[in-house]
Model the fold of this input.
Amino acid sequence: MNRYIEQLIGDIRNATLNIRPPHEIWFSSEADPDDEVELDDISYIEQFVEGIEEPIESITGIDAISLPPPEKLTNDQKALLSVELEKLLEIFHFILDFPENYPLHLRYPFIFRFWRERQVALSFGESHIELCDYNEENCPFFGYCHICEEVQKEKEAHPAVSCSYDDDILDIDDLLPTNEQLNQLRRRNNPDLPF
Done:
């Protein structure tokens, strides 16, 4: 298996040369990829408006079938492949959101499953891939991630800031100032005007 892993790593490193030309939207928009705001805006359009999902193996050039199942690998082999595959994904603008301290060998099963997914290829920017549904009871990173606990503590510390959403529908009227608040603001900024 070690010889196969070496060959696979060579293929992964060669796949970094398979960068596609930018999506046509970048040329028509004349956006500057060095401008963070423009980068975010056009990347969003590329991903969610213009984008067509395709298999990760098509985007990266590494066939999913070439990745060994996690149970066939040692922890060292899984760690080695995780590093190489994450580097390749970053070149193609995919960032898998692992906790910082999550061990490399434990990452490989997530990467292995991700390779069978479909995503929109990006020309610039980053596509963060959430690996957690933020349900503490189903935490895939138990013992390594404490985000759910931190969010709960923040909600308890600042209950007025916490929002409750009714079926994920937010009423925009609750966010806008009332007419009375607007008039008070106008009077404060323009005391000579007759409101």
Q: What stands out?
A: Residues 2-131 form one domain.
